[in-house]
Amino acid sequence: MSPTESTARQVRDAIARREASAAEVTEACLAAVDRLDPQVHAFLSVDHAGARRRAAEIDRRLAAGEPAGLLAGLPVAIKDNLCTADGQATTCASRILEGWRAPYNAHVVDRLLAEGAVIVGKTNLDEFAMGSSTENSAYGTTRNPWALDRVPGGSSGGSAAAVAARMVPAALGSDTGGSIRQPAALCGVVGVKPTYGRVSRYGLVAFASSLDQIGPIARTVGDAALLLQATAGHDARDSTCVSQADQPLPDYLAALEEPVEGLRIGVPRQFFAEGLDPEVEAAVREALAVYERLGAKLTDVDLPHATDYAIATYYIVATSEASSNLARYDGVHYGHRSRDHADMIDMYMRSRAEGFGDEVKRRVMLGTYALSAGYYDAYYKKALQVRRLIRRDFEEAFRKVDCLMGPTSPTPAFRIGERAADPLAMYLSDIYTVSCNLAAIAGLSVPCGFTGAGLPVGLQILTDVFTEDRLLRIARMYEREVDWVSRAPALVAGGGGGAA
Amino acid sequence: MSAAELVPTIGLEVHMHLATRTKMFCACRVAYDERPNSCVCPVCLGMPGVLPVMNARAIELAVRMALALGCTIPDLAKWDRKHYYYPDLPKNYQISEYDQPLGVDGHLDVETPGGVRRIGIIRVHLEEDAGKLMHAEGGGDYSVVDLNRTGTPLLEVVSHPDMHSAEEARAYGETLRQLAVYLGVSGCNMQLGQMRFEPNISLRIGTGPDGEPRYTPIAEIKNLNSFRSVERACAYEIARHRQEYEADPAGYTLERLGKETRGWNDAEERTYLLRSKEEAHDYRYFPEPDLVPLVPDRAWVEGIRAGLPKLPGQFRKEMQEAGLPRKIIDALLQEDQIAKSWEDLVSAIRKQPQAKGWDAKRLTEIAHNWILQDVRRVLNERAIPLTELRNSHYAEEELAKLIVLVETGVINRNTGTEVFSKMIATGKSAAEIVQEGNLAQVADAGEIEALVDQTIAQNPKVVQDYQGGKKASLGRLIGETMKASGGKANPQIVREILLRKLGG
């Protein structure tokens, strides 16, 4: 077994069977990071010493026959907007949190540690998860392992790139409007956005609280299921997280290999509209054909509000919440404080002006405006009303079909810098993904082929709230029929990084 | 319009710290006078990624207060964020309830010199307190922040502008405090900042052409922390509004100038402008996405209603019916638990067989006499609340038995006070203490007569004074005789015998 070529479950099983040690696996991952990350820049920090200590501890436990957890010895990377009390900084890729060390772990980090995972490092993102390309990081752009001149998507671009470049078998990201699914699609890996409330947000640095969810990024559906299993479930510290009584946590792996009989797939007309890249459309249609061959029934469905108004609604709700969530970064209690300031107000203004990047400022201003007296009703309140209509679109669709399918992103990975000057073009990268967050439902992206230039394409699958078990089974049905997972970026084998 | 027609119109926003052990949205202890920043955690420090979790006890206390104020508890209360930048507010927003508070439409009856006034309550809602910002001592060019208070559960009660004088505003505040203390909802300790007031003051200046009342601009005075300052600040503002209006009747109106925010300088006893209408904050309220709305279970609310204690208004009514004077009623109602203890004592005395023939007036008088003198004295000596005194053997049933001993002449009133102290200290019954100390008063005339003879023989000078017309000397002779008896003689009998012997 090669730790960097095998899937997370293979790695985990090999360690559990004592065919490989956690130490060996961790060394292999650290070596891959050291070799590849100078080109990819997926990581903001790599914890060599911590990972080695942790792996040694897992090996000791396994040798002593002590319980070591569901993920015993599995190396993982986590997005740098998840708090870790391990001494690594939690920066959100922002200057304003440069060097800030959290005194607590995010709930998901506690869960990973409790299940024996080895945290290798923290991955790059668009500042405060605001972006679709990871170009908005204050610490440099992450590159797409399939084509180093292209973006990995975002905002969880670092996590997706780290998994795609096989530096780690699995990673955690966060998804507010597509930030797990879109980079997963652009990097050719699996990314899951769980139902809102399935995973505790405690310790996830908030961007838009009513939309944010943490989810796994991995190379296979099964690996994503494994990570979701380890991190989902009730946490009393997050009031929006469901209780075990209301929504018991299923065993996602138990029935994963069982196909869904008589699967009804809804194909939203609006997901194949203007602006969709023909090669992306072809790959997605081919995937739909695979499902048809498996006996699934395809139906056209309408989501009238979910695309036409989704972007506008999303950018009001998300920026409004962001303007509030980011108010705390003021240089008073922690984080960046401007060196020279005339008085308190000046200190606030300079600290924020110096600490935040342009996209964050843009969104804070948009959100502040939308919540202002005299505009609240026209913007925020209206957006909440449209949000309910979007939710209703999905409710009606799920009465007729088991899932919805379409492209995750309208285009494959675009060139670095291509959309940086055009925020609106960038916002449209999320056109198929944001409605899932607005409706609070579950969604994932699974690789469904490559463009002629060798760029990965992702198939997005959406299911109703708290049906991740079914969502994963549906994705797995397709994954069994194809073999995209065995293709690796050329740079992994030591080749060049340019587009093929 | 003449000045006499200007009607002061005052509404009050009152903030109270709830008597919870922990903060509103985290498990930190609610603390006062602790080392700065020692009672804090990532949640109340507003660190990145943390989330609030509601304190169920705070919600229960808030509902309790709302119910006692006769409020309706809506089916849903919603949390909102109120934004403003200040270093004592780590998140730069306060979690509050903006347009859907947990209690609405109540009232509070207030005793005023002009009779009982019913003050309308617009709303009761929960929020979190901010920390404290202090400027550096010694003139340093910096400020320091103490966040121990940050996140302390705060109950806000907003009245209608139903008060028409500074005295009424004060009386309303006092009555509200009394209610909160009775309910155990808040300690309302002013020194600790547990209760703070923000009056809104304007003058009604008759009616406009549309028939609607017109007003002078509304002045909101921030952060008053004593009844005295509420009264003074309101009086100051009423006078200031009157002056301003009379100087410019056309310009000094609410329509023109809106609402302004003012501070109170306690040393100089005057208000000063903080923010005019143009400078008013835009708080950018929006629903708090980190919390789910509060949907109170009806049975739970009814349970709280059923558990409400007797309220001060009801006590007052009953005490008035029992014929107690206003001064005594006020004294009994002043303190937490005292009124309840008085009530319990009345019924405990009533249960004593010896008390069968006592009329209601005698009963209530005996009871308030003992409560206000003896029970209060012990409380003051020990500086503890009555609830705690119960741990030291205080019980109304036992006190009632002691009172019977006094009232039936077994011991005298002064001995009664001593016995009461010993009961609290030892937990023994009054009868036991009287017996062990041989304290039963001597009522045998022969025995007392011998003591009186002894006193007369030993104090010829005092006897001479008395017989020479100095009537006050009789007290001295009674005292000497009592002393000789070890305090046990019946003072009434001593007096009678002395008078007889001295030929008074």
Helix content of chain A: 25-40%
Helix content of chain B: 40-55%
What's the CATH topology label of the domain at 8-235 and 248-264 and 461-493 in chain A?
A: Amidase signature (AS) enzymes
Question: What percentage of the residues of chain A does DSSP assign to strands (E)?
Answer: 5-15%
CATH class of the domain at 8-235 and 248-264 and 461-493 in chain A: Alpha Beta
Q: How many β-strands of chain A, per DSSP?
A: 11
Q: What do the pLDDT scores of chain B average to?
A: 92
Q: What is the radius of gyration of chain A?
A: 21 Å
Largest interface: A-B, 45 and 29 residues
H and E order of chain A? HHEHEHEHEHEEHEHEHHHHHEHHEEH
- Straight-line N-to-C gap of chain B: 71 Å
**Going across the major beta sheet of chain A, what is the strand order?**
1-3-2-4-6-5-10-11-9-7-8
Number of strands of chain B: 14
Biggest pleated-sheet summary of chain A: 11 strands, mixed
